[in-house]
Each structure stands twice: as structure tokens, then as C-alpha cells.
Write a structure and sequence with these properties.
Blueprint: H1 2-6, H2 38-58, H3 62-74, H4 98-145
Helix pairs in contact: 2-4
Length: 147
């Protein structure tokens, strides 16, 4: 601390003028108490984990929520944002040809099944990404704590 004070401290207006600072500003430079027992080490790691998780949780969730909403809207999963309801296809047109209508119905069913599979695959990819991100978050926290 003495070296910091002699070399200009934390705040410097110019090379010649040095502003004084209090001991409260030195709190950031002081080390924690050295943990000697396993219990103290566990308590110290737990407190570091809580501090890191608190800092992570302080980040507004709004940005993540908007990102997730945008991804879901691309897959047409989130229909609550739409103001206009998409009209349903006409299942039985005025045609009396029963063969054509059955073919059209089969075609529509196959398209719907394909769309459903695409949405399910996107959902699975999003869930996998979420799990991977949670694992990487946990590993980063463990690295920061020093496990």
C-alpha cells in the first residue's frame, strides 16, 4: 500500500499533482484471509461461487428473452406475437372430384408433418444449446473459483 501511495495512488490529475485517497479505496487491493483448513477453503469457494452467480444473475434477462423470442418466432413456434391469425386452408373445395381432394389432403398432411418435424428439430437444437451453455457456465464458474 505504501508503494501505491508513493507512486501516485489510485487517482492522478497530472504527473506532479497527486490526490489523496482513503483506506476504503484500498479495499480492492487487499487480499482475503488465507484459508488454512478444508472447512475454510470450502466456505471461501462457496462464497466465491455465490458472488459469481449473483453477478451473472444481475445481468438483465431481458436481452436473453428477446433473443429466445426471436429464435422461436423464426420457427413459427411463438404465435402469440402475431396480430393476424393465419387463415386455415380449405380442406374440401367445391370440386366434386373426390380423388383430387384426397390427394390434396394427403399433400397437406405431409407438409404439416414435415413442418412439425422441422420445428421439433429446431426445438431439440435449442434445448441442446441451452444444456451446453449451462454446462459451460458451470465450468467457467468452477474455473473462476479455482476447482
Amino acid at each position: 500500500m505504501e508503494t501505491i501511495r508513493l507512486n501516485g495512488g489510485l487517482k492522478r490529475n497530472n504527473e506532479k499533482e497527486i490526490t489523496n485517497f482513503s483506506d476504503d479505496e484500498m479495499q480492492g487491493f487487499q487480499d482475503e484471509m488465507l484459508a488454512l483448513t478444508d472447512n475454510q477453503i470450502a466456505i471461501q469457494k462457496d462464497s466465491k461461487r455465490k458472488i459469481i452467480e449473483k453477478a451473472i444473475n444481475e445481468v438483465p434477462y431481458r436481452a436473453n428473452e428477446e433473443w429466445e423470442t426471436q429464435l422461436l418466432s423464426k420457427g413459427n413456434i411463438n404465435k402469440s406475437n402475431e396480430k393476424i391469425i393465419t387463415p386455415l386452408p380449405v380442406l374440401f373445395p367445391d370440386d366434386d372430384e373426390s380423388g383430387n381432394s384426397i390427394e390434396r389432403i394427403n399433400e397437406m398432411v405431409s407438409k404439416i408433418c414435415l413442418q412439425r418435424k422441422k420445428v421439433e428439430m429446431r426445438l431439440q437444437a435449442l434445448e441442446k444449446t441451452k444444456i451446453d451453455l449451462e454446462k459451460s457456465k458451470a465450468s467457467l464458474i468452477n474455473k473462476l473459483i479455482g476447482n
